[in-house]
Amino acid sequence: MSDANVENLRVMLGGLYSTETIQALLEAWRRGEVDLALLDPEVTYEDYDLPDHAGEVFSGHEGVLRAMESWSEPYEEMTNELQRIVGSGDCLVAIHRFRARARHTGIEFDQPSAYVYSFRDGKIIRIQGFWDPAEALAAAGLEE
Q: How many domains does the chain contain in total?
């Protein structure tokens, strides 16, 4: 258990979300410009956010990319600003501010979102996405 995971996650998320939009991040990822060193090759992403993907599990680096593509597709514009990281050691919760505009309706969203990150040997082995930060904290066995 180490607080190095907190700093490594902060650096990774800062790099991922330094682009203006999630769409720009996906384009950079496809060009090989995203550092995936913190993601274990066997990483899994479990989606509890989108109704049509709830409970779906995406595996490996390509699976995480597919997950990001699937949850960004409905939006014309989307950002996910890191607000804070809760926890220490091998289980962390990153709480974000999600802002987006729907592609076909123009409906705008501004709400919290959260991700549980589980580490093994200093690498992220599991990611779980939630709309409600309280649900993410409960899933991780953490509280603020």
A: 1
